[in-house]
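F.,

This is the one I mentioned.
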């Protein structure tokens, strides 16, 4: 009788011990902070919506702000304004990035959304050249300058925030939300372009229709601002709060202490920005003006390609958490190098071919965009992270992204419409060489 009782007690104690050990060793299923990610991403989406509608609708409002009579020159001047605004992005990266390193990611992201929305409202209400003469393009430039500074600060702050709230082994997944929101914003902008070009007469679109998307962007910013007000500050920033105040010249510090990181951001961001503006901006005038494609077909192809781009973000981000960032970046550079020029020859007035071009090109770009926020955030310490990303990413974007639409338009007018795509191919080769110098950061703690 005693033996069964002892055996029962031993088995009960063993089961209890096994359960306790199991509770301690088996990790709980990770739950994404969806509300926080939506709050951070919604503001980013509005930023990119407002930024993208300028590039998409520039073909239709260029003669509203510049003298009529030479439509090509008016378009070039409009894209020149687009390019000049890009050169305010580094200033925004420095000023707002430094503000974020000193005061926090949250107040900096609230500031950027207000600046971007204000710029869109100004453009939406702006009188035309016929009404106020050269004051019109000057005010257009001022509004774009505010948006350029806003986006320069937004990119570095949102990237830093998303990376800082992520667990070390899931940073790729969290990083993917940055371009999920970006892609969603671009999709909304391109769908607006499709609807307007398909259902609105060209005369009405050029007269007033192009203003509507700018008004929409301004109103949506109010909702994004409300979401961001409830967003918590990142623990990573709070843990190192105060360190940034001891740094007197963060820009020079990035060059002096992190020169390799600076070169890596520049080398990768060159192709990153050219890929983005090739498919989300430059191909629109190239397809419509150089290849005779219908505007609504181009916008529909862009929309389908953007859906592919959005859907691939999270899977690619998760894949980088398993196999690492470096092999994915090398794959992206190789695919871009071998496909860009052939894809340019497939840009015709055929809607199916346009859809294939946008889908494959944006699917390839998603390999890198899904992890770009994680990668850049892993290159600098918390006290100068927003400043470091803000300066060097935005400087590279200003030089290469801000001029993309202008360069492709100029080359087309000079009789070399496909030369731009060889330019992108050269950037892919540089990105591959840069990727070879990267240290694998998958799963590592932030500096």
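My design for it:
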């Amino acid at each position: 009788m005693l033996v069964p009782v002892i055996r029962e007690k031993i088995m009960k104690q063993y089961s209890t011990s096994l359960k306790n050990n199991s509770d301690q060793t088996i990790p709980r299923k990770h739950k994404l902070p969806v509300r926080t990610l939506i709050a951070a991403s919604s503001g980013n989406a509005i930023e990119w919506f407002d930024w993208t509608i300028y590039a998409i609708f520039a073909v239709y409002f260029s003669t509203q702000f510049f003298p009529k009579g030479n439509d090509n020159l008016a378009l070039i001047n409009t894209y020149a304004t687009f390019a000049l605004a890009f050169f305010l992005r580094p200033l925004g990266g420095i000023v707002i990035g430094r503000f974020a390193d000193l005061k926090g990611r949250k107040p900096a992201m609230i500031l950027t959304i207000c600046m971007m929305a204000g710029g869109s409202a100004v453009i939406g209400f702006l009188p035309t050249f016929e009404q106020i003469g050269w004051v019109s393009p000057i005010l257009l430039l001022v509004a774009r300058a505010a948006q350029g500074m806003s986006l320069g600060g937004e990119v570095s702050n949102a990237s830093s925030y998303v990376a800082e709230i992520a667990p070390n082994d899931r940073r790729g997944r969290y990083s993917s939300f940055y371009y999920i929101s970006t892609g969603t914003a671009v999709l909304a902008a391109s769908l607006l372009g499709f609807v307007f070009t398909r259902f609105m007469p060209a005369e009405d679109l050029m007269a007033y229709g192009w203003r509507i998307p700018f008004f929409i962007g301004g109103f949506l910013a109010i909702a994004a601002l409300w979401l961001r007000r409830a967003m918590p500050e990142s623990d990573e920033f709070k843990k190192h709060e105060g360190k940034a105040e001891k740094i007197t010249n963060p820009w020079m510090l990035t060059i002096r202490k992190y020169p390799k990181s600076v070169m890596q951001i520049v080398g990768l961001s060159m192709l990153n920005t050219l890929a983005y503006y090739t498919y989300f901006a430059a191909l629109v005038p190239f397809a419509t003006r150089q290849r005779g494609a219908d505007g609504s077909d181009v916008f529909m192809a862009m929309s389908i390609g953007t859906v592919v781009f959005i859907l691939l973000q999270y899977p690619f981000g998760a894949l980088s958490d398993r196999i690492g960032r470096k092999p994915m970046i090398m794959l992206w550079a190789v695919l871009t190098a071998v496909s860009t020029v052939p894809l340019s020859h497939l840009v015709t007035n055929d809607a199916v071919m346009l859809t294939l071009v946008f889908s494959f090109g944006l699917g390839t770009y998603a390999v890198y965009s899904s992890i770009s926020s994680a990668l850049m955030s892993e290159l600098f310490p918390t006290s100068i992270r927003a400043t470091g990303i803000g300066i060097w990413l935005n400087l590279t974007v200003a030089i290469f992204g801000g001029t993309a639409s202008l360069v492709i338009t100029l080359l087309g007018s000079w009789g070399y419409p496909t030369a731009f795509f060889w330019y992108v191919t050269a950037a892919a080769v540089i990105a591959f060489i840069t990727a070879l110098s990267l240290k694998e950061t998958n799963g590592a703690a932030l500096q």
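The domain at 37-436 is CATH 1.20.1250.20 (Growth Hormone; Chain: A;).

Talk soon.
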